[in-house]
Amino acid sequence: MGAACSSGKEQLVDQPKQVAATKPADAPAKPAAVPAAATSDPPKASADQAASSTPQPAATAGEQSAGPKPLKVFLIFYSTYGHILKLAETYKEALEKEEGVEVAIYQVPEILSPEVLEKMHAPPKSAHPVIDPHTLDQADAFVFGFPTRFGMMASQMKSFFDATGVLWQKGALHGKPASMFTSTASQGGGQETTIMTAVTQLAHHGMIFVPAGYAAGGVMFGVDEAKGGSPWGAGTLAGADGSRQPSEAELEAARVQAKNFATVAKKLAA
Ligand SMILES: Cc1cc2nc3c(=O)[nH]c(=O)nc-3n(C[C@H](O)[C@H](O)[C@H](O)COP(=O)(O)O)c2cc1C
């Protein structure tokens, strides 16, 4: 599958170690011990960057305490090659145009080694802060963006969700709305299944999945050009070698999804 996928072997080789490291987070027998272990040892970059980013939403909320309480949205993404990054920044810009919405954007910790990332020809990470799972309860709503890996979310995003056990125990995210968007190399590569299978994460937290539906209208129906996205959420096609960039139609669908999500999330939070 070209550059975007050609290094799948390296990733697959690397993954079992990571899965083994985080597997206890799923163990139902001892839920109390698991999340603590999973969240107490985040990657160094995560801890450092999260420390600097954590106060951001609280400070902003404090400044606006005189007016109506803004809807605090955490937009959390993972991107290897930048396609999800572009969608994430576009989604964020659109959310920020909505009245009474405050957005903080984060990336999840990388779990692949620098050596593996180099073999995958991955560019350096963006400067967005790395999310600290302990801070999730500060948000009223969530947007998650992640590329597909064989039709499901990338393991980096799954690893992040695996570190939310403590919040699950407290029911801290119960009832909070969330929307999602994705990226695949090809049109049949998982635009729908990647989001559909990710809904399980939301369900277990009691979160409310807000789909994109067909709110983007014509953009959703045109068949003259190849494009990502589905009623499940916005999406882009990276191409087999990763060279294709998000098209204007795909970005517009993300903007519409953002606007629609803000409307629904504000109603739920009211
Ligand atoms: C291990 C691996 C598995 C992948 N599986 C799929 C797949 O099943 N379907 C697909 O269309 N693309 C697949 N891809 C391509 C990625 O989805 C693509 O690189 C990604 O969407 C680009 O987004 P990003 O630039 O934000 O990382 C795979 C890539 C890797 C490395």
From TrEMBL:
It comes from the Eukaryota. GO terms for cellular component: membrane. InterPro entries: Flavodoxin/NO_synth, Flavoprotein-like_sf, Flavoprotein_WrbA-like, FMN_Rdtase-like_dom. Residues 73-261 form the Flavodoxin-like domain. Gene3D superfamilies: 3.40.50.360. GO terms for molecular function: FMN binding; NAD(P)H dehydrogenase (quinone) activity. PROSITE patterns: FLAVODOXIN_LIKE (PS50902). Residues 1-66 are annotated as: Disordered. SUPFAM superfamilies: Flavoproteins. Residues 19-61 have a biased composition (Low complexity). Belongs to the WrbA family. This is NAD(P)H dehydrogenase (quinone).
